[in-house]
Amino acid sequence: MYRFLLSRQWVILTLVALLLIPTMIRLGIWQMHRYEMRTARNQLVADALSAKPVPVEQMTSPGHTVTNDERYRRVTAKGHFDTDDEVVVRRRTNSDDEVGYHVLTPFVLTDGKVVLVNRGWIPADGPSQTAFPKVPAPPRGQITVTGRLMPDETTAASGIKNLKGLPERQVMLINSEQEARRLDAQVLGGYLAQTAPEPKGDTPELVGRPGDEDAALNYAYAIQWWLFAAGVPIGWLVLVRREARDRRAAAAEKETPQTQPATV
Questions:
Q1: pLDDT class for 5, splitting at 50, 70, 90?
Q2: Which of these, 235, 238, 229, 231, lies nearest to 19 by C-alpha position?
Q3: How far apart are CA 90 and CA 37, in angstroms?
Q4: C-alpha span between 180 and 190 (Å, rounded)
């Protein structure tokens, strides 16, 4: 009764089922790896944000590349803002997805080195995109700034094209090497996303804390793929039994003699 399994249709169906099972198992394993990676990243970010702030010079230096372990570390910087060389970063959004600028201000440390400080977001409310927007002034004189250490932005990492020929004092990327050439100064690698002191009047709008990646979603996907893998042989068996039952019923119907109607 199960000789139909040797038919072309059922051989193909069985082969497809046998291929689907390991494929779904591997997809589940991949999703579990994603879950572990995202969980580890979330923990790394949480540890960095909860760590005690340290002087920025302990974490970075001119030419230094900020690593993933150093990213989001809370640091402090003592010195003063240099608003004469301030620039704005184009096409940045705030928490409400409104397009505007990030304000990037050089911060001159007590030893003369410079660290770039992203002071936050301002709206693009100028008369045109070529005009330098109105930027609220930072505190004057010697102050201490606290912020999250961030790596230099690159086109490869961010997907943002570093366009040429931009209006004066406007840039596309926050990049310490690029700014070091423009300022002709020793600029520490990476930059600070300012968290304190908070600006007067809530402008510029400080860049928000990084959010957690949804690791639980990858965990759910992994379980889903493994359930699918378990369901394939069950589904195959159900189809086989149904086919066998239908064939038995058809055979029994053929063997049952047909009753002839009585002659009147």
A1: confident
A2: 229
A3: 32
A4: 11
**Pick from 115, 251, 246: nearest CA to 187:** 115
List % helix, strand, coil for the chain (3-state, nearest 5). 40, 20, 35
pTM across the whole model = 0.75
The amino acid present at 161, given as its one-letter code, is K
pLDDT over threshold 70, residue 137: yes
Per-residue three-class SS string for 165-204:
CCCCCEECCCCHHHHHHHHCCCEECCEEEEEECCCHHHCC
Whether cis (ω within 30° of 0) applies to the bond prior to 127 is no
Long-range Cβ pairs for the range 159-168 (8 Å, 24+):
160/91, 166/90, 167/129, 167/130, 167/131, 167/132, 168/132
Bridging pattern class, strands 114-123 and 170-171: unpaired
Helix (H, G, I), strand (E, B) or coil at 70: coil
Inter-residue contact 40 to 68 (CB < 8 Å)? no
Ranking 3-12, 16-25, 97-106, 180-189 by mean pLDDT, the lowest is: 3-12
Q: 84-101, pLDDT tens digit by residue?
A: 999 999 999 998 899 999
Is the pLDDT assigned to residue 126 strictly greater than 80?
Answer: no
CB 79 within 8 A of CB 57: no
Cα dihedral value 128, 198, 82, 76, nearest 10: -140
Dihedral-angle region of residue 201 (phi above 0 means left; psi in -120 to 50 means alpha; beta otherwise)? left
